[in-house]
Amino acid sequence: MDCTHAIRRLYGCTWRQGLLSLLCLALVAGAALVLRRYALLALFSAIVVPGFVTCALLLAAARRLGWTGATILLLAATGIGAWAVLPAYKSVLAAWDVHALPDQQLLACVFGVNVAVLGLPLWFARTRARAQQLADLRNAALAAELKALQAQVEPHFLYNTLANTRYLARHQPQRAVEMLEHLIAYLHSALPDMRSETSTLGREFELAGHYLALMAIRFGERLQYRLDCPSDLAAVAMPPLLLMTLVENAVRHGVEPKPGTVRIAVTAGREHGVLTIVVADDGAGIGETTLGSGVGLRNLRERLQALYGSRAGFVLRRGDAGLTEAVLTLPAAYAVELAA
Prior knowledge:
By secondary structure, the protein is of the alpha+beta class. 67% of the residues lie in helices and 12% in strands. The strands form two sheets. It has a five-stranded mixed beta sheet with strand order 2-4-5-7-6. A two-stranded antiparallel sheet has the order 1-3.
């Protein structure tokens, strides 16, 4: 939210709201007159009049003011207004033969109340705007880092896939056709996600399935995989390529270094409003010194922090039976709102 919008939202009102405010002020003034609380009525007027003038000045100059300019104008208008109402305050109370507050007390009261009532909301709005700006910059930096990471990964992946396809075309033409079909399906799913801020669990599972199918052709019987995405969760929205990061990590650190058969299982579930995605493999695992310290996983953690804060989490652990488990948790309710 920029400064102009904040000023209009904080100090502006519709004509109905304005009439209601004037009616309330008239009721307060009338009650004070009936009860003969002249000192309170004069003090109330001395506070309200500079406040209204300050609001009018801020609204009139909203387009030309930044946060600093709005703050300076608010303080200056409030201070000058307090001095301006001082003679009228003293004259009115003298006419009513009522004791007036000392000048310093009145000025402090008028200035302090208006600064608190008008200045604190502006300060909070400025703080929120700065926090949002920092969040936007952080998201932009993460997006740029993700694009850079994709620019490094995708050519390597395509090169290996096309090299394998060329080999299969010479020795196993039918398998080469199968690999090309999976590659086309993978690119058909992956390319839109690279330009989108959100995806769905079903799309991410579909993308992971095409990728694992390609890897299964590449590694042959060494790779076995299973994907389990409940149909009622397929439409749940989630950030794109998070799941692919975990699947690629399982292939790179689980399948490639270990001889023999490696099984990868990708599952999802929801409980108590939390979406949990698990990528488990019985491959080589990751050493203690490098557990979860790769660029892809670091980027994943930073994206989660920027998008969800403490509402999401990621853990890379060694589970039962020696499995390496990458566990991703997302607020499912929030994800559904994004999909809508």
